[in-house]
Design a protein that fits this description.
This protein is α+β, with helices and mostly antiparallel strands. It has helices at residues 14-17, 95-114, 117-128, 136-144, 155-171, 176-193, 198-216, 219-236, 244-258, 260-269, 274-298, 305-332, 334-342, 345-361, 371-388; strands spanning 2-5, 10-11, 21-33, 36-39, 43-49, 61-63, 66-69, 77-83, 89-90, 300-302, 364-366. The radius of gyration is 22 Å and the shape is globular.
Length: 399
């Protein structure tokens, strides 16, 4: 087989697959069976031993012997390739992927030196989606409490980082056009650092749309922008049409734009302060609109998801911003980068503590998976949204 690596190798759990193995997504270039050489294409999933595969970078072409089996998921993956051993030959990665890989390694190393074990493994996942060092216990706690979205590059990461750039430019009284250029450069650099896979590009677009909604406060502009982004992303990368992450991201962004502002206003009208009202509205809107897809795919429903997300929401922004600054500084001057990353220890402790205690509650329900369960959940969520819709105030007009 000859394939082009499309994403970083991810470690697999040993008890399920036997021995230390990695999984990576790749694009098929050609395959040889006997004396016949066939040039083809399509997405493939590679299962391989850790030796010789762990350090591969996206963009590298790899030649190896493998056994072929059918695809696991109902997406555009054409086959699963089980490598017999280390690669026979490995090509060079593009220079920008090598640079991004160096930054990621320096960042992870600085985090290991500046933070305790669980926090050091979690921080790269929160900032750039690098979960290669995330402890399995933390991973399971996050899944149990519906916090797993924090360890993948999402629109929330992009919104926070772009928001920090925009606020900084405004504080420096920089021309808005210069601020927009700076935000665009920051977005491009982040996409390269987090790997320009379809999921990351999807998160970048969704984050930009969410930031537009937050900055302008005009849902009538943000919703057409979201629809345009969806059409553009599907035209550029059709495989997103069968990507669950894409559906969840679109739904969460739509909930932020359509539902969260009205719910926040209703809560504030009933005595809530602005900050907790906004936090609860955002968490509740994202939970309600994504629940049908989550149930259809995983059959998992957390009963504490909204509360847990509200509790950890205040620390996500400082972790993301400080982590991004620390990642840049770690490449230039490691001691200064480690000092900045050390400042993330208290919010990371809070995040890990909330996830740990919430997981111990065992407040989750296992439901049947499949389309039927998803449709039933969607109907119930639609009724809930309709019931929670703020009613217009009646005004008595004197005769």
């Amino acid at each position: 087989m000859t394939v082009a690596v499309a994403d970083d190798p991810k470690a697999l759990v040993e008890k399920k697959f036997g021995g230390k193995k990695v999984m990576l997504r790749a694009d098929l270039v050609e395959f040889r069976a006997g004396g016949e050489v066939v040039r083809g294409g399509g997405a493939v999933l590679v299962l391989a031993p850790e030796v010789g595969w762990k350090g591969l970078l996206p963009g590298q072409e790899v030649v190896f012997r493998a056994r072929v089996s059918g695809a696991w998921r109902a997406d555009l993956t054409v086959a699963v390739l089980r490598a017999d051993g280390p690669p026979i030959a490995v090509g060079a990665a593009p220079w920008w992927q090598r640079a991004a890989g160096r930054v990621r390694e320096d960042f992870a190393g600085a985090a290991q030196r500046a933070l305790p074990g669980d926090a050091a493994g979690l921080l790269p996942g929160l900032v750039i989606g690098d979960t290669s060092r995330l402890p399995e216990r933390v991973r399971e706690n996050f899944k149990e409490t519906d916090l797993a979205h924090l360890t993948a590059v999402s629109g929330a990461n992009i919104t926070i980082l772009l928001g920090a750039v925009v606020v900084s430019m405004r504080a420096l009284t920089v021309d808005p056009r210069v601020g927009a250029v700076a935000a665009g450069i920051a977005l491009a650099l982040f996409v390269i650092l987090a790997r320009p896979s379809p999921s990351v590009l999807r998160a970048a677009v969704m984050g930009a749309v969410a930031l537009l909604a937050l900055c302008t406060g005009r849902r009538k502009q943000a919703l057409p922008a979201l629809c345009t982004a969806i059409i553009g992303l599907l035209a550029w990368s059709p495989q997103l049409a069968v990507d669950a992450g894409f559906a969840l991201s679109v739904l969460a962004t739509a909930g932020l734009i359509v539902l969260a502002p009205g719910w926040s206003d209703w809560l504030r009208a009933h005595g809530w302060w602005r900050v907790p009202a906004d936090a609860f509205a955002v968490a509740a809107a994202a939970f309600v609109v994504t629940t049908p897809v989550v149930i259809a795919i995983t059959g998992h429903l957390s009963l504490v998801a909204i509360g847990v997300n509200v509790l950890v929401e205040p620390v996500i922004a400082p972790i993301t911003v400080l982590g991004a600054i620390g990642a840049v500084l770690a490449c230039c001057w490691a001691p200064l980068g480690e000092l900045v990353l050390f400042c993330t220890a208290p919010p990371l402790w809070w995040l890990l503590t909330v996830a740990d205690h919430a997981a111990e509650l065992g407040a989750s329900v296992t439901l049947p998976t499949g389309i039927r369960s998803g449709v039933i959940a969607a109907v119930l969520c639609a009724l809930l949204i309709a019931g929670l819709r703020p009613r217009p105030q009646r005004v008595d007009v004197p005769p």
